[in-house]
Known about the structure:
By secondary structure, this protein is an alpha+beta fold. It has helices at 4-18, 41-45, 135-141, 156-163, 170-175, 185-194, 208-227, and strands at 25-28, 50-56, 59-64, 69-73, 79-84, 107-112, 116-121, 128-132, 269-274, 277-282.
Amino acid sequence: MPELPEVEIVRQSLDKKIIQKKVKKVIIRNRNLRFKIPLNFESFLKNQKILNVKRFSKYLIISLSNKGYCLLHLGMSGTVHIIYNYKKNNFTNTSFYNSPSLPTKHNHVEIFFDNLKIVYNDPRRFGFFEIIKNNKLLIKRFINLGPEPFDYKFNLKYVFSFFKEKEKNIKNFLLDQNFVSGIGNIYASEILFLSKINPMKKAKLLTKKECRRIVLNSKRVLLDAIKKGGSTIRDFKNISGTKGSFQKYFKVYQREGQRCKRLKCDGNVKKKNISNRSTFFCNICQK
DNA sequence: AAGAGGCCCTGATAGC
DNA sequence: TGCTATCAGGGCCTCT
């Protein structure tokens, strides 16, 4: 599901719901996510107050009152659900309202608060939880990731010099989290369309002008997607069950065979596998 | 060192 | 109906 905009939507709603609340109980039904959930996960979280929920790239960062952090990555199919309790201080399963949005299978982690619980669901189990003990280790955790598109460090100078001598195609670089972090397969295609660049083009061949368009459109597309509540394909929803709407504004993604949306362009949207990820682009206006 | 490819996993859908 | 193959929003690891 989740690229940076979708994770940001989850962050916003999660932050509102659990900020300043104390963790009462943690239940792990399946530890075997992308990485095994550590055995001290429950005790690390229990009785901690949630200071806030932040985000870096596609990672959610839950700050705890013990100065530690709980990291959550949603992988491909992770979703967070919120379930309200109608009996205060009663944690029997039946005391929670059945949420229509809560799947019956693959609810791997439940974190309980006084009047609600959050449930982590992930059919493919590509997502993961991590415990980070302090701020120093948190910074270290992300040291190898590139800047987010919004970061002032993600600028023309950075991009143009990064691409020098690089043989790899531009599409793969947008997905390379060590170059820029937060862009995924949907938004990579959309950014390249707006930038009029062919996804197969070698990075070293990009002009300064093209690099500038990459920088601007990366910021633009992701911000726009956040404003529209993210993209709902398959069944992404925010934790309250509301769908995003950015998928209505896709210019190329999942539009194979359809007319190019650029005015006066007679092109057609093509689909091509690049490093085993489907890539959509206009065969005429993306050079 | 950069870059390509495989792999982790389940579910939905298409095609026979 | 039931089988098989293919494809999904990610990222880590290995090999060349």
